[in-house]
Design goal:
- This is dITP/XTP pyrophosphatase.
- By secondary structure, the chain is an alpha/beta fold.
- The chain has a single domain, classed as Maf protein.
- 29% of the residues lie in helices and 23% in strands.
- A seven-stranded mixed β-sheet has the order 2-1-3-4-5-6-7.
- α4 packs across α5.
- It is globular and about 50 Å long.
- The structure holds 2'-deoxyinosine 5'-triphosphate and magnesium ion (MG).
C-alpha cells in the first residue's frame, strides 16, 4: 500500500514561483498530482521555526488545514561559511520582510565584501515535508544539500533567488547558468524530492 493514494491530489505549500516551477518539472510524469496552495486561497503561514524542518512543517500543516488535502512544503535557504551559516533559514527575508531576490542577493554580496576567498564556501539546504493531514504525527521529512561557493558578481538568468551568485564547482558556472534539467539533477531540492517520491511511491 503506497503512503499516498495514487492520483490523490496534494497541495504544494509554497508561493514561490521558482520553487513551484522546479517541483512541477521534477514531478512531471510522476504518480503524484500537486497543486499550488494559491489555487485553494491558502493564506501565507508565519515561519516562526528555528529550523528548516520546523518551518516546513508549519507551512505544510497550514496548507493542509486550509485545503483539506495532504500537503508538501519546501523550506530552503543558503548558508555561507564566512557568515557562520547565515542567512540560513532567514534567506527569504535577509534584506528585510518582503525583500526581493535581488535585494537579498545584493545584501549577501555586500556582507561578504571583506570575506577571504577561502570562506566564500556555502551550500543550499532544502527540507521537504509531507503531511497526510494537519495532525499527522509522523510526517515524511526529506533533505538535500548542494555545496558551492559565493561569487563576487551575479552570473546567469535561469533559476531564482540566490542562483546568480551560487558557483557550482563541478560545472564551472553559476546555478543560474545551468539549464533547468541540470539544476534539478544536482540541486538540494532535486535530491530531497527524489527521496520523497521514493517514499510516496513505495
Ligand atoms: O534553488 C534555489 N536557488 C536559489 N535560491 C534558493 C533556492 N532554494 C532556496 N533559495 C532561497 C530563496 C529564498 O530566499 C529562500 C527560501 O525561503 P523559503 O521561506 O523556503 O521560501 P519562500 O519564502 O521564497 O517561499 P515559500 O515559503 O512560500 O515556499 O532560499
Ligand atoms: Mg517562506
Amino acid at each position: 500500500m503506497s503512503r499516498s493514494h495514487r492520483g490523490e491530489q496534494i497541495v504544494l505549500a509554497s508561493n514561490n514561483a521558482g520553487k513551484l516551477r522546479e517541483i512541477g518539472q521534477l514531478l512531471a510524469g510522476a504518480q503524484i498530482r500537486i497543486r499550488p496552495q494559491g489555487d485553494f486561497g491558502v493564506p501565507e503561514a508565519e515561519e516562526t521555526g528555528l529550523t528548516f524542518v520546523e518551518n516546513a512543517i508549519i507551512k505544510a500543516r497550514n496548507a493542509s488545514a486550509h485545503s483539506g488535502l495532504a500537503a508538501i512544503a519546501d523550506d530552503s535557504g543558503i548558508e555561507v561559511d564566512a557568515l557562520r551559516g547565515a542567512p540560513g533559514i532567514y534567506s527569504a527575508r535577509y534584506a528585510g520582510a518582503g525583500a526581493s531576490d535581488e535585494e537579498n542577493l545584493r545584501k549577501l554580496l555586500s556582507d561578504l565584501a571583506e570575506a577571504p576567498e577561502a570562506e566564500r564556501t556555502g551550500r543550499f539546504q532544502c527540507v521537504l515535508v509531507y503531511l497526510r493531514h494537519p495532525e499527522d504525527p509522523t510526517p515524511l521529512i526529506c533533505q538535500g544539500t548542494w555545496e558551492g561557493r559565493i561569487l563576487t558578481t551575479p552570473r546567469g538568468t535561469n533559476g531564482f533567488g540566490y542562483d546568480p551568485i551560487f558557483f557550482v564547482p563541478t560545472h564551472g558556472c553559476s546555478s543560474a547558468e545551468l539549464d533547468p534539467e541540470t539544476k534539478n539533477s544536482l540541486s538540494h531540492r532535486g535530491q530531497a524530492l527524489r527521496q520523497l517520491q521514493r517514499l510516496l511511491e513505495s
